[in-house]
Amino acid sequence: MYHIAVSAAFGFRVTRTDGPARTGVLTTAHGAVDTPAFMPVGTQGAVKAVTPRDLRDAGAQMLLANTYHLLLRPGDALVARRGGLHRFMGWSGPLATDSGGYQVFSLGARRSIDEDGVSFRSHLDGRPVRLTPESATDVQVRLGADLMMAFDECTPYPATADEARASMERTLRWARRARERFLAWRAGRAGGGESMTTPGQAQFGVVQGGVHPGLREASARETVALGFDGYAIGGLSVGEPPPVLHATAGLTAERLPADRPRYLMGVGMPDDLVEAVARGVDLFDCVLPTRNARNGQLFTRRGPLSIKGAVHAEDDRPPDPDCGCYTCRHFSRAYLRHLYVAREMTAATLNTLHNLHFYLDTMQRMREAIRSGSFDVFRQAFHRTYSRRPRHELPGD
How far is the C-alpha of 332 from the C-alpha of 356, rounded, in Å? Predict the structure, then answer.
């Protein structure tokens, strides 16, 4: 039988505040995380184009893996037999997993939702698959995640108040079932037929409600009442304008317990991270730094740079003169453009190393600014220099 040993390994404490922005320490069985923190996304148990050693060198503290994809391949039971996801993928630090809710949302016509859960066809081989609040919890337990998410229904944008309410209320009903299932594992009352001990696992509830303030408030209140170990803000970065994203994230964060970690799921752009930290968010994940790297876009302190432009063909400068990453210390824009145009695999690696360094360094600089009481100065300076509009040449080049 699978079993979660009762452990005090998970914890969170706020160490400094500067307005709503805050630093903290998130403690897990696999190490501590300084917050606010960004989690690189390892969809299938790997962050694309880089190794765990690269991630540690870049300053990554915690990774996020994808429940939906790992359920389909290689399967949670196989991962459990291999000693859990940490051992399987060679990552010794903390790991979080999503619930599969967003992937189910993105499946569109390939899935059907009912009160019990979601049925869908595997995108790999078409076989029928069923996910429920209980089974999504079981999968994450078997993977051995330090932080796991309760199964939720991601509300689309736009959605009417009635549509958002129905989705939010279903997420609440699912959250109760997911919490009950998780607590059964913790107490040793869940079945499974095999034996596994993963100390200190924690479960986060997900707040939904679309962009409707009253629904967000109700969702936060009812989710907190279920007594989760931490709380995630879901259903954002699905098409809403940035000011709406920022306002909704801030309103939700205000209504979450100050002594629990707050996680804004799937966000986002660098300026979104700054604005969310300003509103008291602690954890982030997004595929943008790795996906955009593979598509030839590099993030810099002045904005995104398209390295594939012909303007870089004979440019000996680094992608970002202000960056100290391995890529910027050793390679020119001309070389990186050549690799991209030639479709060399090394292009994805070097671009990804740079983008992850930029994201992780930005989080580090925010932590330092909060600790020194100068976060608002950092925030204003960031917005003066950073533009999210992609370009082939940066301002001032």
Answer: 18
Task: Label residue 104 by pLDDT band (50, 70, 90).
Answer: confident
The residue from 285, 315, 320, 361 that is catalytic is 285
Is the distance from CB of 341 to CB of 351 less than 8 angstroms? no
The reported pLDDT for the residue numbered 123 is: 87
Closest CA to 359 of 308, 304, 316: 304
180: enclosing H helix or E strand? helix 161-186
Q: Who's near 290: CB < 8 A, 6+ residues apart?
A: 40, 41, 47, 48, 49, 352, 355, 356
In the residue annotation, 285 being an active-site residue is answered as yes
Residue 98 is among the residues annotated as catalytic for this protein: yes
Tens digits of per-residue pLDDT, 195-243?
344 778 999 999 999 999 999 999 999 999 999 999 999 999 999 999 9
Q: Of the residues 18, 98, 271, 315, which is catalytic?
A: 98
Q: Tell me which residue of 325, 149, 318, 346 sits closest to 233, measured CA to CA.
A: 149
Map residue 50 onto helix, strand or coil: coil
Among 95, 98, 97, CA closest to 26:
95
Model pTM score:
0.95
Q: Are strands 21-28 and 31-35 parallel, antiparallel or unpaired?
A: antiparallel
